[in-house]
Write a structure and sequence with these properties.
Length: about 140
């Protein structure tokens, strides 16, 4: 399977403007730039998109593993906080912290911990990132 994302850019780094699109059309020429990346202005940025992709990937992987364990989630909410740090040769994504709150009828804490750790390590986005990936997973009753 192959899928595409694309970006267009015009101008310099600080005054330039970009637009990000996805093959599916979920994002179509969605604005991004220096101000949305570093100054909190409207628009998106690569780190936010990686966070959404990682949260989605991890949650889907966990859903698969739950199914294999004969469990079904009533609700799972995952946030991925992506850290962009200044390093010697520029900037790097140095960490991603996944935070999950899940309601899974019939799951005990030991099985939950086992499956969440497996999903964190096994999801394709986790495998792609060369960063420290941490996880807080809360099983709600």
């Amino acid at each position: 399977m192959k899928t595409k994302g694309s970006a267009a850019w015009q101008g310099g780094i600080k005054d330039g403007k970009g637009a990000i699109s996805t093959q599916s059309g979920a994002l179509k020429e969605y604005p991004y730039g220096f101000s949305s990346r570093f100054e909190g202005k409207p628009g998106t940025n690569p780190e936010e998109l990686i966070g959404a992709a990682h949260a989605g990937c991890f949650t889907m992987a966990l859903s698969l593993m739950l199914g294999e364990a004969k469990l079904v989630a009533e609700q799972m909410d995952t946030t991925a906080e992506v850290t962009l740090d200044k390093v010697d040769d520029g900037f790097a994504i140095t960490a991603v912290h996944l935070s999950l709150k899940a309601k899974i009828p019939g799951a005990d804490q030991a099985k939950f911990d086992e499956l969440t750790a497996k999903a964190k390590a096994g999801c394709p986005v986790s495998k792609l990132l060369n960063a420290k990936i941490t996880l807080d997973a809360t099983l709600l009753s």
